[in-house]
Amino acid sequence: MITADLTGKVAIVTGASSGLGARFATVLADAGADVVAAARRLDRLEQLGEGRRIAPVRCDVTDAADVERLVETALKRFGRIDICVNNAGGSSGGPDRQATLEAFRGVIRLNLDSVFALSQAVARPMREQGSGSVINISSMFSLVASAPVPDAGYVASKSAVNGLTRELAAQWAGDGVRVNAIAPGAVLTPRVAALLDEARRAESAASIPLGRLAAPDDIAHAVTFLASDLASYITGQTLVIDGGATVQFPLSMRA
User: Fold this and answer.
1) pTM reported for the whole predicted model
2) Residue 154 catalytic?
3) Short-list 46, 29, 128, CA closest to 85
4) Mind listing the pLDDT tens digit for each residue in 188-219?
């Protein structure tokens, strides 16, 4: 029986110092993978790796030299790379009336350029192995506008991640390298939980068909699935995990 056992696999996870990235790293390690956890905050990565199969590496994914060093470190320590989770990202562009072109480009560089750069770098050893799984973290806002908090740069970059996922999947399928994306909706990470009081949390949950915000494990288990042999025939797809948020009409359009 095929299971999500990742024993013997080596994974890179970016943006792993907190939030979803930290959970991705620990869940992959718990499934048996050796994990190279990358982020700019090395102290948090070191805490994450205590007692687990996690190697912390300081990395700014917008720095080409850092990206190459990250891949070289993983290969030197473990000899292969089987899984890459492009999780690092952010938003700062804001509504178009407020965002500068410089800020917009900064979001594109972080959310899109870095995904291409690291994916391209890990694809080299994956092609030599004849196998690999790249998982890009997109957003439900790659499919719908980001109201009530507009952010043109974020929406544009995450939409482009979906397209990049399809294109790289098509280019690399013949080499045994799968490329997929996950588009989460609202996730109750520790940071989000700290920002929402009980009333706001209930209001947010009420707007989602399944009646709750996602738990980090709702997304992390999908990462493990796509990284494993259970998903060996899946490539070029964007898996939306949003509790049904993107399948309903806006509240303002309902009778």
Assistant:
1) 0.93
2) yes
3) 29
4) 888 888 877 888 888 888 889 999 999 999 99
